[in-house]
Design goal:
Bound molecules: S-adenosylmethionine
Helix content: 25-40%
Distance between the termini: 52 Å
Order of helices and strands: HEHHEHEHEEEHEHEEHEEHE
Shape: globular
Strand content: 15-25%
CATH superfamily: Vaccinia Virus protein VP39
Radius of gyration: 18 Å
Length: 270
């Protein structure tokens, strides 16, 4: 059992989500969070399916909603058909890390941040709070695709799907991943602040897959089939013993428990 889990409960501090992520940003990419690792593994299959499912004429505008440190924005940078990438997040701390990470790629391959370039995707990084903004930034609207990974845990479902419906064109596709409800029933996002030893937790909601699919439907989204099995639209993933080495020691206590799910949703054309 890790030191983190031995901490007495009074050392858990709940902070407003933006404040929690501003503080988490410093160690978000290095603190051994196995769910990010699992997400990375699963996106190797889901992300190509997402790209194949976009039927809009090329080139595409794609939004990373709740981009965090740019972990998955990086995937978009490697897609030749993506001409515009809009990375949105409510935490300035997370966006700062994303900016510096993506800037390194910028320097290496000539991507232009917040200014157009003919040879490389145009990348915009903007502060955007799903909960408080009345609509998405203009630059993010009429998008052909949205990716939103490990974000919806922090957002009531109507607010999330309202904003995604404002971002996507009719026929556009959302790639959504999140902590599975089985894991969410006993845990939530959080990190240990190395300065204080406190476990910091933002606001989280345990959304069931059924609730997410139902709410998506209300906002005009249909689940895409992604598996070989007829009607299989959501992939659910438990941690297996054989994965612990790759996912890291923090995944060990989750063996046998569903921890991740992902799927694709298409905005109805009418
Ligand atoms: C677990 S991180 C995921 C980051 C990134 N998508 C990834 O997969 O690594 C959750 C992200 O959601 C962002 N977030 C939380 N609430 C938000 C809101 N109301 N509006 C926009 N972003 C939000 C956080 O700031 C954080 O960067």
């Amino acid at each position: 059992m890790s030191a983190t889990r031995n901490l007495p409960s009074q050392l858990v501090r709940y902070l407003p989500t933006n404040e929690a992520y501003d503080r988490w940003a410093v160690v978000y990419d290095t603190d051994g969070n196995f769910l990010q690792e699992l997400d990375t593994i699963e996106l190797k299959e889901l992300f190509p399916k997402f790209l194949l499912s976009i039927t809009a004429p090329r080139p595409w505008r794609v939004v990373d909603l709740g981009c965090g440190t740019g972990r998955n924005t990086m995937l978009l940078l490697g897609v030749p058909d993506v001409a515009e990438i809009i990375a949105l997040d409510s935490s300035r701390g997370m966006l700062d890390v994303a900016r510096s990470r993506l800037q390194k790629v910028d320097d290496a391959v000539g991507i232009s941040i917040n200014s157009p370039s003919r040879t490389a995707p145009e990348l915009h990084l903007e502060v955007f709070d799903i909960l408080t903004a009345s609509s998405p930034p203009i630059v993010a609207q009429q998008a052909d695709g949205v990716i939103s990974t490990l974000v919806i845990e922090h957002i009531p479902l109507p607010a999330f799907f309202y904003q995604v419906s404002q971002i996507l064109k009719p026929g556009g596709v959302l790639l959504l991943t999140n902590m599975h409800e089985q894991m969410g029933a006993i845990s939530q996002a959080g990190f240990v602040d190395a300065n204080t030893g406190e476990k910091i937790r933002p606001t989280s909601y345990t959304h069931t897959i059924a609730d997410i699919v139902a709410e998506a439907n209300k906002y005009g989204f249909d689940l895409e089939k992604i598996g070989e099995v007829e009607g299989k639209g959501i992939r659910e993933r438990a941690v297996e013993d054989s994965m612990v080495e790759e996912l890291g020691p923090r995944s060990k206590k989750w063996v046998g428990i569903m921890c991740w799910f992902g799927g694709l949703f298409r905005k109805r054309r009418t």
